[in-house]
Design goal:
By secondary structure, the chain is mainly α. The chain has helices spanning 3-12, 33-36, 62-73, 77-89, 92-119, 126-134, 136-167, 179-199, 201-231, 249-263, 279-308, 311-316, 320-328, 335-364, 383-393, 402-406, 410-434, 448-468, 470-481, 483-494, 499-515; strands spanning 42-43, 48-53, 375-376, 517-518. Helix content is 65%, strand content 2%. A two-stranded antiparallel sheet has the order 1-2.
């Protein structure tokens, strides 16, 4: 992309070319020396070059995008959740129906999020959608509860699970792994994932493809072993599939809740829309491919579980896949725990990737300090946002009882998924009354029925969550509402331009010098025809 081409576009849009060349550098944050000149900082994919502007390149192919969806969904859930689903259903037949229903419900949400991603083609996911449809306050509350509270907790829990699988063989038959060893290995794992994503987008994508292939390999081993048993005539668990079915609606709802937990992750690609190659095609196709792969694999895996293990055996163990391996795989039983560990680490890689992009997007929208919107000019990755996400997560590794903390925020997951879709319904209603907005005339519109069904089901899921843990969910709701005074405090502080701005500029300059970073340029998304879009914050902070 030539610099003259970009400059002409930026001049037409009233961007930095329209500013006087002798504007004072003291009016800007502390950018690099090149940035203080009227000429913008120029870099390309590999480093300094006067023929390109700074941007996050579109490096995520449709294969990598599909692996992010499938890898985000297929985490530790399929290896442990069958117990929760069967416990609520009471029978093999109803548990299979619940797994299917959870997959169909996920499809309705995925359809709505595909439309949201095409309507608002920015990275940031639900944060951007809530800001655009419901205002800045809702976007800030999402950042507060999802990224500052829930995601660090989930990241710590996932890495601790990985650490247990990795270091347990070193301690043999010891009943308890030393506390320090477990926490240090988990913290080191999260730091390594952060470092990997700091190096290059493509490296993180390739790592995700490998981990997704490993977890699918583990599940294929389970499926093949289970169906061999069925072919040999071991079908006694399917002769009376609905025997013992629960008559308690509350128990069935809790079983469905466990199944929905295993399907979580289909929205991750919306957090990195700007980094997808040909996002108008890749986003919907990858979402549906990844979700289809996950749903089919989940159904076949559960059938394989029930072909080998009785319902009573499944209910007596925590790790169903490990019990299956002990029974069926003989000497290679150890491969399943290894694949479970890889599955967990792959899911955590998706979390690191998407969380950092949301911090990056929030900094561009002035919700967070501008230093988080910097890009490394060599690697073209948002390194300050990645490091900030790591700094939020590391203290969680030294909290003694993380599981008791995460229960307070379980219902936040469904609120943060349902509210953007509710905002989509609101926008569709406004467009029906006042006509489509100029920038959404070419947006793909899926039937609104799917969005309405998804929102109604999210409300029901929230009701089940409060039914199961009323006190914990009320505490979590209170923590969420604490974000309201924090929002107005932050807005009040941001209006005081004196000392706060000086400290912000000093932090920005420090990050630029330490990490070799700069702000990316701002070019109209619709003007680009070569597969790149460039959203920047340079003008926003002038």
């Amino acid at each position: 992309m030539s610099s003259s081409r970009v400059s002409s576009r930026r001049g037409n849009s009233g961007s930095t070319d329209s500013q006087p060349a002798d504007s004072s550098p003291t009016d800007m944050p502390a950018f690099s020396a090149k940035r203080r000149q009227s000429k913008p900082l120029i870099v390309d994919d590999y480093g300094d070059d006067d023929d390109s502007v700074l941007y996050i390149p579109r490096k995520v192919s449709i294969v990598a995008a599909t692996s992010y969806i499938a890898g985000g969904i297929i985490g530790a859930g399929i290896f442990v959740s069958p117990k929760g689903v069967l416990s609520g259903a009471g029978s093999v037949g109803l548990s299979i129906i619940l797994w299917t229903a959870c997959g169909i419900f996920s499809y309705t949400g995925a359809i709505a999020y595909a439309e949201l991603g095409l309507r608002f083609p920015k990275s940031g996911g639900a944060y951007i959608y809530l800001r655009e449809s419901m205002g800045n306050l809702m976007g800030f509350l999402y950042l507060w509860i999802e990224l500052i509270v829930r995601r660090p907790l989930m990241g710590a829990i996932g890495c601790l699970t990985f650490a247990k699988y990795v270091i347990q063989p070193a301690f043999g038959n010891c009943l308890r792994i030393p506390y320090a060893s477990e926490r240090l290995v988990a913290a080191a794992t999260f730091c390594i994932l952060t470092y990997l994503n700091c190096l290059k987008v493509k490296w993180g994508s390739n790592f995700q493809v490998v981990t997704t292939a490993c977890k699918l390999t583990a599940l294929v081993i389970i499926i093949v072993a289970g169906f061999i048993n069925i072919a040999e005539g071991d079908v006694e668990n399917f002769t009376k599939p609905f025997e013992g079915t629960s008559n308690n609606i509350g128990d069935i709802a809790l079983g469905a809740y466990a199944g929905l937990y295993a399907y979580s992750g289909w929205d991750y690609l919306n957090f990195v829309t700007e980094e997808l190659k040909d996002h108008r095609r890749t986003l919907p196709v990858a979402i549906f491919l990844g979700l289809t792969i996950s749903t089919v694999v989940y159904l076949l895996t559960n059938i394989a579980y029930h072909a080998v293990l009785t319902p009573q055996e499944i209910l007596q163990v925590d790790a169903v896949a490990v019990a299956f391996a002990d029974r069926e795989l003989g000497r290679i039983y150890w491969t399943i725990p290894v694949f479970v560990a890889i599955s967990v680490i792959g899911a955590q890689n998706v979390g690191v990737f998407t969380s950092s992009r949301t911090f990056y997007a929030s900094a561009r929208e002035k919700e967070f300090p501008p230093c988080l919107a910097l890009l490394n000019i060599k690697r073209l990755t948002p390194q300050p946002a990645l490091i900030f996400n790591c700094m939020l997560t590391l203290p969680m590794f030294f909290v003694s009882d993380l599981q008791s903390l995460i229960q307070y925020y379980g219902f936040i997951r469904w609120g943060s998924l349902g509210l953007p879709v509710l905002g989509l319904i609101w926008l569709r209603w406004k467009e029906r009354r006042m006509g489509p907005m100029n920038d959404t005339t070419d947006t793909v519109r899926y039937p609104v029925f799917f969005s309405i069904f998804f929102v109604v089901t999210c409300v029901l899921v929230l009701g089940v969550s409060f039914y199961a843990q009323p006190i914990a969910n009320l505490i979590g709701l209170g923590v969420c509402l604490l974000g309201i005074p924090l929002y107005f405090f932050a807005m009040n502080v941001s209006k005081r331009r004196g000392k706060v701005k000086r400290w912000s500029d000093m932090l920005t300059l420090f990050c630029q010098k330490l990490l070799n970073c700069a702000f990316c340029e701002e070019v109209n998304f619709d003007d680009l025809s070569d597969g790149f879009d460039i959203y920047g914050v340079y003008d926003a902070y002038n």
